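Possible race condition, two jobs.
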Amino acid sequence: MGIAGLWSNWKVEDKPALFTCCLITTTANDVVRPFHDRMPAILAPADYAAWLEAGTAPKAAHALLRPYPAERMEAVEANPLVNSPKNEGPHLLDPAA
């Protein structure tokens, strides 16, 4: 999946460059709304090029920042092991017991 975001390269005098980024959020869809009022702006694959193209008009880029279709998502309870950065591996994708 692609999530809309922005990045910048900050350069101040003789200091090393600082690269920063952020994810863009939008209004939550029906799947996410029970948990939070915002969600990442998930882009459809057909919209990737328009989002990444520097020549895309600002209004056209803004129109891509809409809630992802709820019918294309599902909510599952996360495995509690994801709560610790000590845990790694594909078993973290297993649903909660």
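Job #2 (started ~2 s after job #1):
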Amino acid sequence: MESKTYNGSCHCKANTFKVTVSPPLEDGHEVNDCNCSICTTNGYRLAIVSDDSVTWEKGGLDTLKKYKFGSRNLSHYFCPECGTSLAAGGSLGGVSKIGISIRALEGVDVSKLKLKPFDGKAM
């Protein structure tokens, strides 16, 4: 299956990364449009990928602030310097995945993506 690698970062560039998505976002990769309170507040739209699809070039999950709420199954990660929301991750059903905020990726037109409603309120 075709894939594409995107460059991403927080606003202040303290955290930079590459993420490989298959299929590419522009070619139909479904992007989660979650209705939970944190995703709605931050405008998250998440591309769900395997943990090994993300390569941190500067910073990383261990340097980001982590926030958990509700069932506390997922962590939401943001830059402690500029506050940019970058990711959400954790283990659901024994599978470890990470959701990358597509708003942190370079050159992605959010209006052209395939959104998949996700009922995070129910978690």
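The CA atoms of residues 12 and 82 lie 6 Å apart.
Logs attached separately.
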